[in-house]
Amino acid sequence: MPNENIFPKQLHLFTNNSTSSLSEDEFDTEFFELFSWALPGAFKSSLCFCRFEEGDTFYNTRNGYLSPWSEAVKHLTSCLQVTFPPRAVIKKGTPQAESIFESNWYGRVELDFFANDKGKLIKQKHIVTTQGGLYNFLWKNNQTIFQKKEAGVPPVTSKYIKWLMRKCSKHFSDFTQGNVYPLEIKTDKTGEKYLTLFKCDAKSIKKIIENSISNILDIKNEYMPNANELLIILHDQSNTLLASKVSSLKQEIDRKKYNCKIYYGRPDDIFDIKMVDLLPTLQFAYFFSREKGNVLYESAKKSFYKPQPDKKTDKDSFSIASHGLYIKC
Fold first, then answer.
1. What pLDDT, in 10s, does the model give residues 68-124?
2. What is the spatial order of strands in the sheet that 57-59 belongs to?
3. 8 preceded by cis ω (within 30°)?
4. Cα separation of 110 and 175, whole Å?
5. What's the rounded Cα separation, in Å, for the pair 238 and 44?
């Protein structure tokens, strides 16, 4: 049996004589939908920074966390428990989360794999892999990932999405007005980098952007065809910083009682980029407005723009493009 004294997240221990489950107050019932393994909200920071630590325990079903053990074990087929690295203090949100995620990706992690044998979890093997390998396994449930070398499991990221959002925002009016526009990617160092990441040429990128704008218009026509503004911002349920941005913008809109509508979706609802893996925790928050004027723009500025109190110029340096994909319809 695993060591029952190393459960600092206070998740349900899989002891065979356990008869109680966590109460609603003790347990975050929010789960990460796209992961093959059941991951509750208690693992937000672990997913945000790609760092799993000693004592972290994963079940293949939600019942392993919420049900009394006598019932939970009937549904379990397997279980994982991390034995290394030791626990450390993890920040809940920081602008550097993405770079920390990537640097942690290749870090070492060790874990024990347990299988259910007639109601008892029996240790099958000890696995030494990378944090990214474990992340991918929890996501895709493919054990061959553990055998891959570090270079064989590249970090997943939101950088592709951010870059495409900026391109779509820049070329939206040209596309909707039927203008022919060049994407000057080949001569741009940043563009060259993303061509490599997408594994395609400038012509293919242009087609991706055109299709993405068409998809945005389809979503607009479905959810609010008479919208005057649309703002799409990133949302990640594992990243408290991104989640708080969506929350603060929603609060500002509610406070002003604007005629707006919010819709949540996945980036692949818009971007057809099968050649790269999109971060499974990533979502889009679509803000539609029927109001006259630029209420979404002004609300975003009110929510996100924090000028320095001692700045030496009155110049407004707010850029909505750094916060999301803004479209004036």
1. 878 888 889 999 999 999 998 766 667 788 889 999 999 999 999 999 998 889 999
2. 57-59, 78-84, 108-117, 120-130
3. no
4. 50
5. 4
The span from the CA of 328 to the CA of 309, in Å, is 30
Looking at per-residue pLDDT, the higher value among 18 and 63 belongs to 63
Q: How far apart are CA 159 and CA 249, in angstroms?
A: 22
- Cβ atoms of 115 and 78 within 8 Å: the answer is yes
Quick one: pLDDT at residue 290?
A: 94
pTM of structure: 0.82
